[in-house]
Amino acid sequence: xxxxxxxxxxxxxxxxxxxxxxxxxxxxxxxxxxxxxxxxxxxxxxxxxxxxxxxxxxxxxxxxxxxxxxxxxxxxxxxxxxxxxxxxxxxxxxxxxxxxxxxxxxxxxxxxxxxxxxxxxxxxxxxxxxxxxxxxxxxxxxxxxxxxxxxxxxxxxxxxxxxxxxxxxxxxxxxxxxxxxxxxxxxxxxxxxxxxxxxxxxxxxxxxxxxxxxxxxxxxxxxxxxxxxxxxxxxxxxxxxxxxxxxxxxxxxxxxxxxxxxxxxxxxxxxxxxxxxxxxxxxxxxxxxxxxxxxxxxxxxxxxxxxxxxxxxxxxxxxxxxxxxxxxxxxxxxxxxxxxxxxxxxxxxxxxxxxxxxxxxxxxxxxxxxxxxxxxxxxxxxxxxxxxxxxxxxxxxxxxxxxxxxxxxxxxxxxxxxxxxxxxxxxxxx
Length: 430
Fold this sequence. Notes:
By secondary structure, this protein is of the alpha+beta class. 65% of the residues lie in helices and 10% in strands. The strands form two sheets. It has a five-stranded mixed β-sheet. Strands 1-3 form a two-stranded antiparallel sheet. A hairpin with a 3-residue loop joins β4 (334-340) and β5 (344-350).
């Protein structure tokens, strides 16, 4: 749960980051005091300085226990903690040269932290207080006892101090800017996922309505097909065609019933665990009823039944859509091969079509994008297949084959990995 908080944008996560940044900043301040006193022989008010550092270290320890308590943290508390840092830094600078101290640039650190972590009004307040303290140090401070150093030596010390300040400030700023960029990328992906979920929800609503509307005409077609079979029992060719038509109607009715039964379930609710070999054989059996004349090659690369994967009706429909797409562009034959390792199962679907070129390779899988002629496709099959596979923790990847055609690779995780990931997510939410 702590790792989850640390990676989020909540006030508790900001408190966690502030704790670790203080460790580096105040450790650097302590090192600077020790070096100035022992290494350079500058007579600093050592005990007052170390007292401030000790108080800040103690407060940071309290911050750690505060974060560990899991009590509710708000932005006001983080804001107060940053003001304490500004006060501590002001105390150190007051006792060590004030505005002439090269470490005055450290005022930028709490300001950067406030600008990144807190709402704008808090950042402006921190900026105002920091500017006031900096201005106050110009007129009120304890001068550094550097009389034993000549002007050149003093400038060298100042330059070294500015160099150290720059390194630490740059590191902190880059750390936070990288965090912002990562957050923006996550937000962008979340927005894309939300848009995709909204599209799927809209399609699901339309599909549910269409499924109910199709029930009556499909039942009527079944009845008429049976009556025609009896009426023209002497016409064997017609009876055979009518029988095929009736079976296809039954497949449609079964598919609609399965879709309605599985609608609205959560990720693993209603799923069942089955070996990858048994699953693909079930899908192939259903698909062959739809494409009985399609030449098809099925290969199992591994030994045994392979790992168990979590499946539901949407995943079965996804593979059927992928097989149909392959059959549409490659009427001469489609191939499927499955293999696996301890973590995943991989399904390869190959066709002998023209593959994907240019814009099609980039936009494949987008809703309503299709390379088929108008009236031949809606651009939803691949989109829904990709969404269904990813919903169960899998991936879909398409690439052109060297000898021509398209290779579609579906990767499905072992059911144990899915259960472990979901358990971690539940623990993080609790």
